[in-house]
Amino acid sequence: MSEGVEWALHSCVNLAWSGPDRAVSAARLAAWHDLPAAYLNKQLQALARAGILSSSPGPRGGFRLARPLAAVSLMDVVAAVEGPEEAFRCAEIRRQGPGAGEPAADGAAAADCAIAHAMTRAELAWRKALAAQNLDEIRQQAERQAPEAPRRLRAWLAAQ
Amino acid sequence: MSEGVEWALHSCVNLAWSGPDRAVSAARLAAWHDLPAAYLNKQLQALARAGILSSSPGPRGGFRLARPLAAVSLMDVVAAVEGPEEAFRCAEIRRQGPGAGEPAADGAAAADCAIAHAMTRAELAWRKALAAQNLDEIRQQAERQAPEAPRRLRAWLAAQ
DNA sequence: GCTCCAGTACTCGGATACTTAGTGTCCGAGTTGATTAGG
DNA sequence: CCTAATCAACTCGGACACTAAGTATCCGAGTACTGGAGC
C-alpha cells in the first residue's frame, strides 16, 4: 500500500487540530513531520479532488477540511489516495488457453469464478472495516494518548 | 496485489484435479491457461517453500500438493506469494520533525498510534476472511459450476 | 486621510525525472528413464 | 535373455533483463497582501 495513505491520515487529523478558521499550507504540514513537501502536496491534492479537503491558492492559502472529521471514514481517505479499484483483480485466466471451458455464457461474469468470489469477499471485509471508522474517532483516541498534541501544533503553526 | 496470487490459486485447484499420483510440471500448468511458464514456475517455487506444494526434479517430475487441499487456506497461498508482511506499514512519521512528541516511552509501540491501530484492525479482518476459507471449498464450488472441468484437465494432461 | 494601483511573496497544480518492486526470461545442476553393449 | 553402464531428455532452481507503478522534484498560473503614489 502506498505510503501516502499514512501521510494523508495524519494530515487530516492535524488539520482538524489546527482549526477550521485558517488554512494550512502543504509545506507546513510536511515540515511538522519532516516529510517531502512537494510529494505530500500531491496526496493532499488527491484528498481535495475527493472532496475531503478544500484548497485555496495564494498567501494565507493552503488546505482545510471540507467537511467535519466525523463525516470522513478511513475508507474515504484510502480510496482518494490509492484509487477506487480493488487490490485483487481477476484476470479470468481460466478463460485462456486449452483450459478455457465454454466461452463464458451471457450472465457469467467474473463473480462466477470461485476464486475471484472468495477474494472479493475478503476484500469487502477490509473495506467494511475501514468504512466503519471515521477520522473523528481516530482523533479522539489520539488526543487521549497525547492530550497536549493539538495545542503544540497550534503554537508551532502560529510561530511559523 | 501481485497477479501471481490468482495463478497460484488456480494451479493448486488444477493440481487437485490432476490427482496425487503423478506430478505436473510448471510448463503444463502454464500452458493450460496460456501463462508464461518460467514466471509461473517462480510462483510455484514460493508455494513449495511454504510447504503447500512439493517439487520433484527430472523427467516425470513437477509439482504436486504437499497436503490435502482442505488444509490449505487462501491466506496460506497469499502469504506464500506476496510475503508475510502486512500491506500497511506504519512508518511512525509522528515521531519525526517538530511534531514528534515525547520520544516514545518504553512500552509505546506502533500499536499506540491510533491510525496504525485502525488500519491494522481492518487488515486483520481481511486476513481472517482469507484464513476462514480453504481451497477445498473453492474446488467444490468450481466443480459445481463446471462439473466437466476435472475430467477435461486429466484428459488433456494424458494427451500431452 | 482615503483610494487606487503596481509589485511581491506565497499558494496550489500539473508536468517532469528517478527509484524500487513487480514482471518476464534465460541458463545451469540434478534426476529419471531409455538405449545399448556386454556377459 | 539378463544386467549394467552410458546417454539423452526433461525438471526445478536461481541468476539475469525489462517494465510499470510509486516516489520525489521542479516550475508555472493565479491570488492575496503590502507598500506607495495620487487625489
CATH superfamily membership of chain A: Winged helix-like DNA-binding domain superfamily/Winged helix DNA-binding domain
Given the structure, what is the number of helices of chain A?
7
What is the count of β-strands of chain A? 2
Fraction of residues in β-strands of chain A: 5-15%
Could you list the spans of chain A in which at least 5 consecutive residues all have pLDDT below 50?
A: none
The assigned structural class of chain A equals mainly alpha
pLDDT averaged over residues of chain A: 92
CATH topology (level 3) name of chain A? Arc Repressor Mutant, subunit A
For this structure, the quaternary state is: homodimer
Topology of chain A as a string of helices (H) and strands (E): HHHEEHHHH
- Shape category of chain A: elongated
Number of domains of chain A: 1
The Cα radius of gyration of chain A reads: 21 Å
What would you note in describing this structure?
Chains A, B: This is Rrf2 family transcriptional regulator. Chains A, B: It comes from Streptomyces erythrochromogenes. Chains A, B: InterPro entries: TR_Rrf2-type_CS (IPR030489), Tscrpt_reg_Rrf2 (IPR000944), WH-like_DNA-bd_sf (IPR036388), WH_DNA-bd_sf (IPR036390). The structure is a homodimer of 160-residue chains. Chain A has 160 residues and is mainly α. Chain A has one domain: Winged helix-like DNA-binding domain superfamily/Winged helix DNA-binding domain (Arc Repressor Mutant, subunit A), CATH 1.10.10. The first copy, chain A, is 52% helix and 5% strand. Chain A is built from seven helices and two strands; from the N terminus they run αααββαααα. Chain A has a two-stranded antiparallel sheet with strand order 1-2. In chain A, strand 1 and strand 2 form a beta hairpin. The first copy, chain A, is elongated. At the A-B interface, helix 1, helix 5, helix 6 and helix 7 of A face helix 1, helix 5, helix 6 and helix 7 of B. Chain A binds a DNA duplex (39 and 39 nucleotides) through helix 3.
